[in-house]
Write a structure and sequence with these properties.
By secondary structure, the chain is of the alpha+beta class. The chain has 4 helices and 9 strands. Strands 1-2-3-4-5-6-7-8-9 form a 9-stranded antiparallel sheet, with helices on one face. The relative contact order is 0.15.
Length: 226
């Protein structure tokens, strides 16, 4: 009886060890992205992107608006639905690991310097780096805020990371409001390379039409005042 009890206990220990090893392996093989740094899911939604030029371009001159009109324009703009605080990336000071795609692929972000900074007054850029077996295999800029004070213009780049998919939205903020420059979807393959899946060409016809209507409105106002 004594030997039987010992045998049962030994078998139980082996069984527990197998379960623990299996559990550890599952965790290590899972894709993990830290949602504190994954960006806003809306960036991946083309329906959302299509509404930006419609809702975020101003219908009255930028400087002629009252405080209440500014508040209403901000609420009307669909970009107000973004909940992720991209401005926290401006204060990023060191490399930050944000996830893993498997045992070999590590994702991290860090500050980089944008290209073509002529006349830019304030700028911030953060890039995503893919590292496989301690070697950087690829990288891409995923966040930008480039401010041209005299031109009253800010170029913005927002992102969303969902497992191995990367979505990028490029915006332009100026006196006309906010408009889309471009949108793209990428994925990270098993070798750690970033590949383009699709991008969207933005039709700026409506933007030009709205700008023209703004100019006409300003001219009409000036004539009335005269």
């Amino acid at each position: 009886m004594k030997y039987f009890v010992m045998l049962v206990c030994f078998s139980a220990l082996l069984s527990c060890k197998k379960v623990t090893d299996k559990s550890t392996k599952i965790v290590s093989d899972q894709v993990y992205i830290n949602n504190q740094w994954s960006g806003d899911k809306l960036i991946s939604d083309l329906g959302f992107v299509d509404q930006i030029n419609i809702s975020c371009l101003l219908t009255s001159p930028y400087f002629d608006r009252s405080e209440e009109e500014v508040k209403q324009d901000d609420l009307k703009c669909i970009l107000s639905k973004i909940n992720f605080d991209y401005s926290k990336l401006d204060s990023l000071r060191e490399k930050k690991i944000i996830g893993h795609l498997n045992d070999n692929l590590e994702l991290y972000i860090k500050k980089t310097i944008p290209e073509n900074l002529e006349n830019a007054d304030i700028y911030n850029q953060v890039s995503l780096f893919i590292k496989k077996d301690e070697v950087i295999t690829d990288s891409i800029a995923i966040y930008e805020s480039i401010n041209y004070i005299e031109a009253l213009t800010v170029k913005q780049l927002y992102y969303y990371i969902n497992n191995n998919k990367i979505f990028l939205l490029s915006l332009l903020d100026d006196e006309s409001g906010s408009s889309v420059k471009s949108w793209a979807e990428y994925y990270v393959d098993d070798s750690g390379k970033i590949k383009l899946v699709k991008n969207k060409k933005i039709d700026h016809t409506k933007i030009e039409e709205k700008k023209s209507s703004q100019i006409k409105q300003v001219e009409k106002t000036t004539e009335t005042q005269t």
